[in-house]
Amino acid sequence: MTTNSRRLQWHGVAIVLISFAVPVQAQQEKSIEVTDCVVRFADEVDVPSMVSGRVSEVAIQLNQSVEQGELIARLDDRSQKIRRRALGLRLEHARSEANDDVELRYAETALAEAKAELDSNRSIYDDVSGAVPLSHIRRLRLAVERGELEVAQAKKRRLENNMEVQLREADLSMLDDEIANLQIASPLSGAVIEVSRSAGEWIEKGHPIATVARLDRLHVHALLREDHLSPSLCKTLPVSVHWTDAVSGSERVLRGTVMSVDPQMLPGGRFRMHAEIVNRRDGDSSNWMLLPGTTVRMKVYVSEAAMQNARSQGQSRVNHY
């Protein structure tokens, strides 16, 4: 066999191998297309007021983009600010009283003087009998005891003053927390899809002042047939959503993952599946590629073995009945 014929033979073998490799790879994973889909917000939060009061400012507008922690509205805080000023003055006075040690130093000085006088008279009494009356010594002892009690009383007052400072600080912290609750902030990043109150209106505690929805994640709810794919195999499967752009006419694609499957079958052997899609900005603009309510079709990617297993289970149920 010539060299050229051997080359042709090896090229033929390579071509045969490639032609057999393509179908094997294609059979490893297939997609099931679902057209009965609904796109919804992943998170849609009614932002409540933490206290009752009059709305003094609404800092957002309908359809505005907001970041987590961004101010949405502010309630009237004039009375709280007046109370805070009064509590601040009381706290300063309590700190001044707690730092004032004049009473304690005076009591300690008086005690030291009483002890010195007692020691001096006792020394004279011991050296010269009868030079100092015993009654005078008793009075000096009582003076020392009184001085010790005055020192203990002064220390107790200082301790009470320090406790008063802590109580005033706690009152001020509680009021600061109340004032902070008058500032209503967005709990997540997204878009404002509803504004329920305007400046000047009254709002009760717990009532929503606005609704914020997340747009970087979307949920797709779809109906599938059990004979196409078993519900037990759906969770964590990769998916993609496809739709046609209304302006350019081009097909758009986003990817995600199956989150869960409802534990209840529907008539016709159908079940409801829920997938989360990672949304993206449309190029350099601030617009999102996919919006809730868009008509889409979804592809669920599953291995051929799993599909065969689903078909076998479905056929076995039919034969059983």
UniProtKB/TrEMBL annotation:
<keyword id="KW-0175">Coiled coil</keyword>
<dbReference type="InterPro" id="IPR050465">
    <property type="entry name" value="UPF0194_transport"/>
</dbReference>
<feature type="coiled-coil region">
    <location>
        <begin position="137"/>
        <end position="169"/>
    </location>
</feature>
<dbReference type="GO" id="GO:0030313">
    <property type="term" value="C:cell envelope"/>
</dbReference>
<dbReference type="InterPro" id="IPR058625">
    <property type="entry name" value="MdtA-like_BSH"/>
</dbReference>
<keyword id="KW-0732">Signal</keyword>
<protein>
    <submittedName>
        <fullName>Multidrug resistance protein MdtN</fullName>
    </submittedName>
</protein>
<feature type="signal peptide">
    <location>
        <begin position="1"/>
        <end position="26"/>
    </location>
</feature>
<feature type="domain" description="Multidrug resistance protein MdtA-like barrel-sandwich hybrid">
    <location>
        <begin position="44"/>
        <end position="211"/>
    </location>
</feature>
<dbReference type="Pfam" id="PF25917">
    <property type="entry name" value="BSH_RND"/>
</dbReference>
